[in-house]
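Bumping with the actual sequence this time:
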Amino acid sequence: MTAISPEELEALNLKDRKGALVRTVPAGGPAAAAGIKPGDVIVEFNGKPVVKSDDLVQQVVRTTPGTTVPVKVVRAGKEQTMNVKVEELDLENEMNRQSSDNTTPDDTGAGFGITLNNLTPDVTRRLEVPSGTKGAVVTEIDPDGPAARSGLRPNDIILQVNRQPVTNASEAGQALRAVPAGRTVGMLIMRNGEEQFVTVRKQ
């Protein structure tokens, strides 16, 4: 799930950028079983509005495993409601992701418009990252922020900040916060198993 960029509003037939855009749906998982598809925008979970993808993650984490909840999505401009059974395995993965991340969306990538999390074993398997890779995975990007303008994407893995290796989200966040506003930082990232170098100007 990611945020919705301004450019995607027309393609998704949406009036605003509220909701969580589904990018991928793992085969055999509870979302797939319920009929959720890539390109759906989740706008409500168990009767509560979803303004951004972080809202949805928090709501799923608080849901008891085995509970079936209604999930409202917008597909091709039309709202649909599906019943999704929250499975224990997926809940634990989300809880591990949350508990292993000691930073918040407000300070992880302050001035860059990114949210980071640790590169957990589950994320490593999902993204097919080479064994032994250490870094911080980009989980969400402000579509209007400097990172998005520089070409960073969700699921990019930050390996270095200004040539200094970072092994987790905390180290990456600390390195990014140390960059003065208005300065440009170089990042070595991994995308689809390949290393790339990008520069981002902190606002």
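The tokens above came from a reply further down the thread. Helices lie at 8-12, 30-34, 53-61, 88-99, 121-126, 146-149, 169-177.
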